[in-house]
Amino acid sequence: MNLHTVALGAALVMSAAPSSAGAALTECRVPGIRNSVLCGVVQRALDPARPAGTVIDVHYVVVPAMARRKLADPVFLLAGGPGQSAIGVAPQMLGLVSRLNNRRDIVFVDQRGTGLSAPLNCADTRREPLAEQADPQRQQQQIEACRTALLKLPYIKARADLGLFTTTIAVQDLDAVRRQLGAAQVNLVGVSYGTRAALEYQRQFPAQVRRSVLDAVAPPDMALPVSFSTDGQAALDAWLAACEAEPACARNHPALRADWHALLRKLPLAAAAAHPLTGQPERFVLTRQMVLAAVRSALYVPAVAAALPAAIGDAARGRLEPLLGLNALLASRKGVQLAMGMHFSVVCAEDMPRAAHATDVPGADFGTEQMELYGKVCANWPRGDVPAAFYTVAPSRSPALLLSGGLDPATPPRHGARMARALGPNAVHVVVANAGHGVMAIGCARDVVYRFIDAGDDAAAVAVDAGCLKAVPRPPVFEPITADAPASATATGSPTPAPASR
Length: 502
Description:
The chain is of the alpha/beta class. The protein has a domain at 224-334 and 473-490. The chain has 19 helices and eleven strands.
C-alpha cells in the first residue's frame, strides 16, 4: 500500500512578488479563481525557541469580501492531509463558502511544510510503474531518499529541523497571519486533518476563535495508522452488508462477499493490467496492500464506492483495471497530492508515539501492515516535541459545529462524538448517515455552515437547523453497461462526480 493512502487527502501563479512581512497585501491571481485575490506572507522563526535563527515565509491568500461594508471576522480555511496546501485547494473550497464571502474575507494559509510555505515535498510516485508502487522495499528507499533531499533544503540547517513542522507550531504561524491582517477574531473551517489544526488553534488561542466548523473530525488523540485500520474495516463491513441488504445489489452481485475474500486469499498474485494514470500495459505482483488501498480510497466518496461491487467482481476474475482505476480516480484529483515530508513530521511526532498504547482493534482485513510501514518510517524520521496538553480538548468558549459522515472510512462519527463531548454545550455534532469523508460539499451542508457562522449570537449558532441533511440519499449501486444488454437492464444507478471536500 502506498503510504499516500493514509492521508486524511496546484500551482500558484502571482502577478506580483509576494509582500514582505508586515507590508500591504499584493494583488495576485490563483489558477481556478476567476477574480484577482490578495497574496501575503508572514515571516516566522523556524524554531520558536530560537527567534534569531532560521526564518521561513508562511504564505497566504485572502479572497476579499464582495460587500463594501464587510464584517471584521474573516473565515480561515484549514486544509487536510496532513500535507495538503490550502492555497492549492482554494478553488474547490471557495465554492463551499461563497455565501460567507459576501461579507467576510476568506483566508487560505499554506501551513508550514506545504504549498509555498517552506515545503517538504517528496517525489510524486503516482505515475511510477505499478511494480514499484507494490514493493515495500522500494517505498522505504523512496522515503529515505526524500528525507536525505529534505535535509539539503536551504531552510533545513540540521536534522532536528524536520521536527519543527508540528501542528502546535503551525497554528502559531496561523495566529501571526491573523495579527498581520488585524482581525480580533476569526472563524475556523477545518476539513479532516484541518480539524486537528483548528482544535489546537482553539486550545492555544481560545479568545481569538469566534466560530469553528470541524468537517470530518480528526482529533489529536487518534493514532492515525491504527485508527485507519479499525475505521476502514468498519466502513468496508458496513458497505458489504448494505449491498447484501439492497435488492438490486444483492441480485447483481450475489457472491460479492465471497468474491472479496477469494480475492484476498489469492494475494500476492502475478498480474497484468494497464496503469490507471499512464494507460501503459504492465506486469506486476498485485499485493494485499494495493487492493486494500484501492478499496479504502473508493470508500471515501460513496458515489465512487457505488462502483466497488462491479470492480471487486472483475478483480476476483482477473480484470484489475476497474479496481485500480477507482484508486487513481481520487489520487489524481487536483490538490490531493501531499507534501509527504510534512506529513511524516506530523504523524511521526503526534500519532506514532501513541500507537503502541492505542485501544483500537485492527481490522480483520486491513490488519497492522499500515502501522508497521509507518513504524519503519518514523524510526528514522526526526521527531518534534508535542506538549502533553495537545491531546487534551477543553470545553469550548465559542460555538463549534462538528460534521461527520456515517460512511466515512477515515474519520467516522465516533471521533466527532468524542470531540463533541469534550467541547461541551457549545458543540453541535451533525451526523450525515449517507456521507463519506467530508460533508460540506453535500446537499444543503454549505447552507448549514453559512447559517452557523453568520448567526448573530452564540445561542442562534448552537441552535442551527441541520435537518435538511437527513434527506441525503445513499448513491445507488453502479452497474456498467455491457454490450449484450440494454442500459435499463444493467444499471441501477450511476455515480455522480466526487465532491471537492478535502
